[in-house]
Amino acid sequence: MNFPAIIADKKFGRALTGEQIEAFVRGAADKTVPDYQLSALLMAIRLNGMDARETADLTLAMARSGDMLHPDVGGIPVDKHSTGGVGDTTTLVLVPLCAACGAKIAKMSGRGLGHTGGTVDKMESIGMRTSLPEADFLRQVREIGCAVVGQSAELAPADKTLYALRDTTATVDSLPLIASSIMSKKLASGAQGIVLDVKVGSGAIMPDYAGSLALAKTMVDIGTRAGRNVSALLTGMDEPLGSHVGNMLEVKDAVEILRGESAGPLLTVSLALGAQLLTVGGVAANPEEGEAMLRRALADGSGLEKLRQLIRAQGGDESVCDHPEALADAPIVRDVAAPRAGVIARMDTTLLGYAAQELGAGRRQKTDQIDPRVGFIMRCRVGDNLSAGAPICTVYAANEDTFAGAQQMILRAVEIGDAPTPPSRLIYAMVTPQGVTEY
Ligand code: URA
């Protein structure tokens, strides 16, 4: 197949045939098409889009680019996936809570993408293995109810190649590329119950509600046609979800929530997603019952105990469950102060994500190494009143240069006004095969 001709077709906005899509996906999976041609096609798709048939063809071709699992995990295998956010560590909160309630979570997570963080990077920051042989992965789910790994070379390998290229070619924010990336992995891993967390707001890959809703509907449709039980929540990303941004710092945030020492929007959204997960996994009859079960697992400490088991099973440092404060440690720890008094009117959350990347918490190039220690803890939320000089956040930096760069970006990202401002919205809508419920 002539690859420049495929690129040219998409450049001129023509729909690609199933055969062209197969050739693209095969070339990405076995790396016979060079990165520069794949990147050119990704950009053409980003600019000219794909119709529903092309998006479905792309998803199925990517899912079939490697093994298709039919996992035996002693129950209904469930998974949740987020379109990505900042301070968005729901996985580390809801996976242990749901597993403590009896769910079987065989989870495939990603690394940071663009300005967003990734669970795999957070797990590796405390020494956890994120690549397990398939048999060990499934045994762990059977034994403790959960396992979280990164993408293996065997599952959806086309996505592995394309994901890394999109991260560094400004082609992340594309509905067909996001939908196919997420759903190919979920279909290949054999998840029967799937919960999608589609972010809306200034830190989301698709910032506006209409785009996020279209993305959620596309993914629910693809999953349902493939015979999976899928639901999606549209959740707010107009400011970091948890107060902590950065890899070790986000693990700290999750542990403190499971220890019952902190709450807030990260817990609220984790409970809402977890309740959906228990429902699609047949553990709860409905989300209300699911949420009550999760709250019990939080209150009786079984969620924290499950996190400890998960960390231990994957070779990480389980002492973080007893001493989360040890995860806040970097050569420079310094506040960024409010330049004037006022109300937090708005946050450019994408820019906050890039501030974390500037500190070394994310990658600018495929081969960049993450610094697990760096990031920041927000000291305010949208709608809060601050006096001049009060801390906006505390930055954890490796050196003065990255501190100065991040400080400048944070001050640009956090807008201080005078008018009273309501808190950011957290849950906008639920999408199921039956339709959309708006809140
Ligand atoms: N998560 C993914 O796995 N892929 C995307 O494209 C976005 C978020």
Give the arrangement of secondary structure elements.
Layout: H1 3-11, H2 18-29, H3 35-48, H4 52-63, E1 77-82, H5 90-100, E2 104-108, H6 119-124, H7 134-144, E3 146-149, H8 157-167, H9 175-188, E4 193-200, H10 209-225, E5 229-236, E6 244-246, H11 247-258, H12 265-280, H13 287-299, H14 302-313, E7 332-337, E8 342-347, H15 349-359, E9 375-378, E10 385-386, E11 391-397, H16 400-413, E12 414-417, E13 427-432, E14 435-438
Parallel strand pairs: 1-2, 1-4, 2-3, 4-5
Antiparallel strand pairs: 5-13, 6-9, 7-11, 8-10, 8-12, 9-11, 13-14
The protein binds uracil.
Structural key phrases:
44% helix, 7-stranded mixed beta sheet, 439 residues, 14 strands, binds uracil
Structure notes:
There is one protein chain. With 439 residues, the protein is α/β, with parallel strands linked by helices. It is 44% helix and 17% strand. It has helices at residues 3-11, 18-29, 35-48, 52-63, 90-100, 119-124, 134-144, 157-167, 175-188, 209-225, 247-258, 265-280, 287-299, 302-313, 349-359, 400-413; strands at residues 77-82, 104-108, 146-149, 193-200, 229-236, 244-246, 332-337, 342-347, 375-378, 385-386, 391-397, 414-417, 427-432, 435-438. Helix 5 packs parallel to helix 11 and helix 5 (90-100) crosses helix 12 (265-280). The model has no long low-confidence stretch (mean pLDDT 95).
